[in-house]
Structures are given as structure tokens and as C-alpha cells.
Design goal:
Layout: E1 32-33, E2 40-41, H1 42-46, E3 50-55, H2 62-73, H3 75-80, E4 83-89, H4 93-107, E5 115-117, H5 122-126, E6 141-146, E7 152-158, H6 166-182, E8 196-197, H7 204-210, E9 211-218, E10 221-226
Parallel strand pairs: 3-4, 4-5
Antiparallel strand pairs: 1-2, 3-6, 6-7, 8-10, 9-10
Bound molecules: benzoic acid (BEZ).
Amino acid sequence: MESPGDETASPSGLPREVLMSLHLGDTAPDFQVDTSEGPISFHEWAGDSWVVFFSHPADFTPVCTTELGRVAQLRDEWDKRGVKTIALSVDSVEEHAKWKPEVESYNDTTVDYPIIADPDKRIAELYDMIHPGEGDTSSVRSVFVIDPEKKIRLTMTYPKSTGRNFLEILRVVDALQEGDRGQCSTPVDWQPGDKVVVPPTMPTDEARQKFDDVEEFFPYLRTARIKV
Ligand code: BEZ
């Protein structure tokens, strides 16, 4: 078992080096768990949607209260993109139920998405959300964007001290969906409506057939618009 200050063991007692971290392109592990909205089976709950799965350190803490409210305020934006959101902390269903009205009143919103209860840290450990160097064995601010095929498309890890920018996470979802649609990439600071980047392996003649408004700056850097 882990003892205070022991950074070599995981909450389950397994040495940290035997726990695999998740990589982009991996299938997001499935799990069954209790949440603020009742028990779920993760893959079944996700269905055909994109998912933003994010952890936070603890209920009744200030930064987390702002974050969970912000995710709720952005409900229409998630819905427009076919995204379901789900949070996790290592607190119990009872604690989530007591805390949720405070998140809602502070942020003037309704938290209508599940908050996973993970007091035994089973899911937090599966997703490598426990970083003991960050102070204790509560979860850090991890984000997983998971596509409808259940592939992990983005991972982000923020420290406990720093609230995330969920508009950036929306922007990444937009970029991933646009990239999938056009089989292309998106450049720095890309926003919906901006030009995309042609794959460097695609000959420019082919790019001019596939895309509109192709501009060549270097043979490897061509911008374009996806045909509507
Ligand atoms: C917070 O949400 O404010 C917080 C939680 C854990 C550690 C630091 C900050």
C-alpha cells in the first residue's frame, strides 16, 4: 500500500512503472462506474458522440467550482459539435450531490452532465490522472478528447493550481473534426473559417482538385479551403 510521501506506488499499490499511460490513437479504456447521474458503462454512455472526459482534484474547491460551471455554461457549444462531457474526481456520489448546487449557483447554470465518483481511484489510475508530485493523490486536471470510434485524439494535463480554458478545448474539437472532414491539418491558432493546411505528401496538382483556394508558400506549406 502507498504510504504518505511514497511516490513509487500507485493508489492500488501497483508500482507506477507498471502502469501504462495512454497515448493518442489508443482506444479509451472502457469502465463501469457510479456517477452523479447514476451508474454508467463508459463506452455505452458515449455512444456515437465525441467525448470530453476531464478530471479535477476535488469537490468543494475553488478552481474546480469555476471549471465545472464553465463546462455546463458551454452546453450549446458542446451539443453543436456532437460532444458529450463527463467529469471525474476522487470524491463520492454523496459529495458530488452536495457540491453540485454550489457549482450551479456560483456559475448561474445547470450541471447536466455526469460527474464520476471515483473514491477508490480506480478510473483515475486507469487514465493516469494521479500525479503525486502535484501535492497529494487526488486527480490532476487531465483532459481526454475521444472520438466516436473511442480513439483518444487529445490529451492535456494541467496542474491543480491552474484552471483550464474550455474554449481552447472547443477549438481543438473543431480542428479535429475539420481535419477529419478534409483529411488535412490546421495551422497555429486556427479558428473555424480559417484556411487549412494541405498534407505535405499531396502533390499540388492533386491539392488543387481536392481543395479550393490553394496557395503555395513552400512545396511543403500550402494552405487551402475544404470544398463545401
Ligand atoms: C481548486 O480547485 O481550487 C484546487 C484544488 C486542489 C488543489 C489546488 C486548487
